[in-house]
Amino acid sequence: MPAYRRVLLKLSGEVLAGGASFGIDAERVKSLAREVADVAAAGVQIGIVVGGGNIFRGVAAAAQKMDRVTADHMGMLATVINSLALSDALEQIGIPTRVMSAIEMHQVAEPYIRRRAIRHLEKGRLVIFAAGTSNPYFSTDTAATLRALEIKAEVIAKATRVDGVFDKDPLKYPDAVQYKEIAYLEVLSKALAVMDASAVAMCRDNKLPIIVFNLTTTGNIMRMAKGETIGTIIK
């Protein structure tokens, strides 16, 4: 039995690259879509925000010399590409999806309208929110938090490549210690690199819990949805 009725799943773009440094790994996207489909079939309403790092990384060196606003807009367009790839994989296994873009592009995606997004979720459709907030200087973490609050999600599920929140980077330091539960304020005061500080502060101000868990472990999305103790909960 799912513990949540509506969740916002935040995926990094790198997840879609699989073992590659950038690009989209079709098999990785398919396996991810199957996991998400299982959770949706259990009756959980799912909104997804996916980053664009796997595509933008290929042009990151050039972007360093660009105007920040232009580079951020390129990053937003990268998230649209990822959203379409994930939507296609879900549709192929019978999960109805809608890609809603904060930047209007009618031939590609629906414009983001809050009430319409909620209606899609209520109708059993999975909604993928693309193009961030449409504003530069805001990360996809902040976009995910904003969309979660707007659709009244009960939790943000942040899928990463590590098991949760650690006191230091576990990929660099073998002696890193994982937190099972941590307060928003502690994440901010210790500058733990989990989500952007602005996103964590928004969650704190609106009492929206964040679950940080390892996406590379098969079945973890379902475990999160069932309320099992995995990863780290920030509340």
Summarize the structure in words.
By secondary structure, the protein is an alpha/beta fold. It has one domain (7-234): Carbamate kinase. Helices cover 38% and strands 19% of the residues. It is built from nine helices and eleven strands. A nine-stranded mixed β-sheet has the order 4-3-5-2-1-6-10-11-9, sandwiched between helices. The model has no long low-confidence stretch (mean pLDDT 93).
Short summary:
The protein is α/β, with parallel strands linked by helices.
**Quick check: average pLDDT?**
93
CATH superfamily: Acetylglutamate kinase-like
Instruction: Identify the CATH architecture.
Output: 3-Layer(aba) Sandwich
Number of helices: 9
Let me know the largest β-sheet.
9 strands, mixed
**Termini gap:** 22 Å
| CATH domain class name | Alpha Beta
Helix and strand topology:
Layout (H helix, E strand, L loop, with lengths): L5 E6 L14 H16 L3 E6 L2 H4 L3 H4 L4 H25 L4 E5 L8 E2 L2 H9 L3 E5 L9 H11 L4 E6 L4 E2 L11 E2 L1 E2 L1 H6 L7 H9 L4 E5 L5 H6 L6 E3 L1
Helix pairs in contact: 1-4, 6-8
